[in-house]
Amino acid sequence: MGRFELPHSYFSMLQSLYSLLPMFGLIGHPTSLEHAQATADFLGFSEYSSMDLDFWCGAPPFIADEIKVTSVTGDQIEGRYVESCFIPEMLATRRMKAATRKILNAMAHAQKHGLNITALGGFSSIIFENFELSQIKQVRNMTLEFDRFTTGNTHTAYIIARQVEQASKQLGIDLGKATIAVCGATGDIGSAVCRWLNKKLDVAEILLVARNKERLEALQAELGRGKIMGLEEALPEADIVVWVASMPQGVQIDGDRLKKPCLMIDGGYPKNMGNKIQMDGVYVLNGGIVEHSLDIDWRIMETVDIPHRQLFACFAESMLLEFEKWYGSFSWGRNMITLEKMEMIGGASVKHGFKPLLLPL
Ligand code: NDP
After folding, report:
1. What Cα–Cα distance (Å) separates residue 113 from each residue in 16, 67, 339?
2. Which of 16, 87, 108, 232 is 20 to 30 A away from residue 173, measured at CA?
3. pTM of the predicted model as reported, rounded to 2 decimal places
4. pLDDT (tens digit, 9 = 90+) per residue, 133-145?
5. Ligand 1: which residue has its CA nearest to atom 48?
């Protein structure tokens, strides 16, 4: 008897059904040129692993991974990882046009692949906002539908706030007596974390660190508290430092100047802390990272040196929105994240089995 073969039309039908499946998306990028080269190698494009920044400026977006996620409720969803080929050095070397093109092209690519809700990871949303890309809706023949995208910042801010709460307990830091410095306080994530610290946790002192004085004063007025400080002044006073500044490269920290114990929650991508501090009493925690209770079927997180089951909270936000079928831009614009929305996405996070990453004590 001949081998049982399915007719070609059956596969076409499966394929079209498949493309109708609800799917989430993640737009990501490497942290540096070196990281881009290593990622190319990892993905099997070794011919690109020695290419320079100019090559990456011209590289188009592509689907770098297919993802399957299972919730602890038993629900399953699928997603796609869109590599934008943006590299933070493009900003440092003032290749702004290339940087903005990368983000818009990646968004068009996600939409073309029918992804319902896509997270703009790392610098993607920062570039989108800072360069006012909402004014550019047309990418070649595609009109971008912005309600298919979310920054993922509400979930990121919620997770960082919970990391402050839970990791401080691990170290025996009493928040009622603690000083918390937020570096990047006026940013989208930073301001939301400050709102949470102000209203939901009984924190003794909040130090507001950023460069633009007017925005700092506006945040201070909104919170009705908080000391505005430069980073150098703030670090020796802080029991906890939350790092959420949009720095293309991290700053070097002198561990001797820090309090002991000191909890450093680095939520930046790339990392805000440019050096690894290995010193008694200084505890560095990867900020804005969640751990899923179940295995996730994907490879791409191996390229960012994050252990199995861990992922960026902004990526998890698009998964949560897909699980809950909360389509639309859950997180959008700047400095509009409310405590209610943080609680809402936080509830979904717990329901589907995501937990804030804590210290490995
Ligand atoms: P925003 O652009 O909204 O805010 C950035 C903040 O950093 C502002 O307060 C800005 O103020 C401040 N800042 C920038 N440069 C410096 C500097 N050199 N020194 C002190 N403050 C500085 O960014 P987001 O809130 O969207 O993102 C913050 C960080 O979080 C980024 O690194 C981003 O990649 C990362 N991120 C992590 C995610 C995760 O899932 N873990 C998800 C999304 C983002 P000013 O310009 O006045 O100094």
Report:
1. 12, 14, 33
2. 232
3. 0.93
4. 999 999 999 999 9
5. 211
